[in-house]
Design a protein that fits this description.
Layout (H helix, E strand, L loop, with lengths): L1 H25 L4 H13 L1 H11 L4
Helix pairs in contact: 1-2, 2-3
Length: about 60
Amino acid sequence: MGIEVGGLLGLIWLIIVIWAIVKVAKSGAGGVAKLIWILVLLFFPLIGLIAWFIFGPKG
């Protein structure tokens, strides 16, 4: 049962990270800022999501 729960949580986490990347890509931030945010989200998902929620581009 632990594998199923872990897999489900992993899938939910992946969906959240993809959603954040899409929001960054659609934001009004400049191209370099978008690239940096996307790279941070890809390479540091937990820290990147927290930082993006606090400091990321709005809109």
